[in-house]
């Protein structure tokens, strides 16, 4: 069975053609980019037409790379970034540019929604926080959470807000564009923190919606990730060059990446480094740690949850390194004519080249430490003012030390998240490692050394979300019969064990890393508070 998956990242979509049989095999893929518009007021927006143009362009390019025909395709699925806000009219058309998960402009809305009150817990109104925790064991504790973006539009763009029919996330908008059905998957509904997870009460909680000032009429009907969202319309089929009537599925990247990592059994933990980063453990019940901003979110499997701790900028820090340290300064890329032009090959080549350079530097980067908070931070502390910094630079510090320090800083933060999870639940050893960061054996070994856990990788780990979306189709169409069966279709390709020789230096640096935020919190606020 052949299926197409659209893997939507922060700045590009990858259209992937899979063959699902006894295993999941990617046949080929194509990429198309779109913009991310960072505004002076903290806004971060994208454009739905750029999304759709990227979908159509990548689909057509896909079939130039294979003998498989559009008529052979059996289904479609979307794997997308989460916690966006797409406000649509009755025809499913976006009324304004979508607000990205990176958007931080709704400071006043956060203060009005959960940030005020005489009695507070973790800086939040105690009554509202406890009510949210009772209903779904989480709450909108960040200025980046979708409900505050929704309220920002209401408060600042009232003429647009009057026209709103439904409030969607990225995956829901794209399935509506394909099918004409305006619905939300339960994982994207949960990411609003207005979803009731109590047994027998699953669904939108109208009381919570009203507490935050959300119009219940704006909340769409809900479906499971394994449900068919709808069938491809004639119009969408013509634009994509695909057969009308194909079943369409969707889910969020954090939902599907774990499936694609092969973590489909309760208790399995995976770590992801892409544009953002996270640590997730699959559970058969919810857990929450409001003090560390760790939530138990809906998984792609009914009745299961992800214990989810997030780092906002992981691979994005590495992209910053490419642009500002490697590409134009130390010559890793400069005048290197062997680097391919296409996005995917360039990404792999970049990791290969920088891994060679990073390996010239000893573990610990001679005491240089980097904090990967380049667009604020969410967990284990929520602070939109937090920022990246290099600590302990000396005259003898070279650029390669700084590059290694960035990778180590990302791994230190992920260890911090892992330890916060382990304080509440049992995490697994080994851990699956996926995302673009897992392309580098140097980074894989670094993560093993810093976390002290065995790290496992899979083939093409940067495509784990797409693999998860393909397995979603297989589950939804009854090609496979259980989550465990889906996990068995994703074998381990490499194993990395902690090197005891590196433990002492990483323990020393990690302890300093953890103290850097507390020592600089007031300075971040003085410099970066809006």
Continuous helix count: 17
> Which strand order does the major sheet show?
19-20-18-17-23-24-25
Largest sheet: 7 strands, mixed
**Structural class per helix/strand content?**
alpha+beta
List how many beta strands DSSP finds: 25
Quick one: CATH class of the domain at 315-422 and 434-464 and 477-528? Alpha Beta
The gyration radius over C-alpha positions equals 22 Å
Which CATH architecture of the domain at 315-422 and 434-464 and 477-528 is right? Answer: 2-Layer Sandwich
The end-to-end span amounts to 52 Å
- % residues in beta strands: 15-25%
Secondary structure layout:
Blueprint: E1 2-8, E2 12-20, E3 24-33, E4 37-38, E5 44-45, H1 48-62, E6 73-80, E7 86-88, H2 107-113, E8 120-121, E9 124-125, H3 126-136, H4 146-156, H5 158-161, E10 166-168, H6 170-179, E11 183-185, H7 186-190, E12 195-196, E13 203-204, H8 206-211, E14 221-223, E15 230-231, H9 234-240, E16 247-252, H10 253-260, E17 269-273, E18 277-283, E19 295-298, E20 305-311, H11 315-330, H12 343-358, E21 369-371, E22 389-391, H13 399-422, E23 431-434, H14 441-451, E24 455-458, H15 464-476, H16 483-488, E25 492-496, H17 503-528
Helix pairs in contact: 2-4, 10-15, 11-13, 13-14
